[in-house]
Amino acid sequence: MTADEMRALKPGDLIRHKHSAAAVIVHANNGGVTAVRVTTVSNPAEWDRVDGAGRVITDIAP
């Protein structure tokens, strides 16, 4: 990729490092590119929902 191509990246674009098979998704490009990796989530018992501070959120049904 050229510098111009990197500057033109937009949220939702997929990119990967030349030495990795794992792609990441461009999240933002405002002078520096921020990209995130996505994982498939299954088996609800293995996952917790957390707040912005990383604390587990417990939902109590009425």
Task: Give your account of this protein's structure.
The chain has one helix at 3-7; strands spanning 14-16, 23-29, 33-36. With 62 residues, the chain is mainly β. A 3-stranded antiparallel β-sheet has the order 1-2-3, with no helix packed on it. The chain is elongated and about 50 Å long. The mean pLDDT is 89.
Per the principal axes of the C-alpha atoms, what is the gross shape? elongated
Strand order of the largest sheet: 1-2-3
Number of helices: 1
Quaternary form: single chain
**DSSP E strands, number:** 3
The rounded Rg comes to: 17 Å
Helix content: under 10%
Structural class by secondary-structure content:
mainly beta
Strand content: 15-25%
Mean pLDDT across residues:
89
Main sheet attributes: strand count, strand direction, barrel closure? 3 strands, antiparallel
**Cα-to-Cα separation, first versus last residue:** 53 Å
Runs in which pLDDT lies below 50 for 5 or more consecutive residues are none
Give a brief rundown of this model.
The protein is mostly beta strands and 62 residues long.
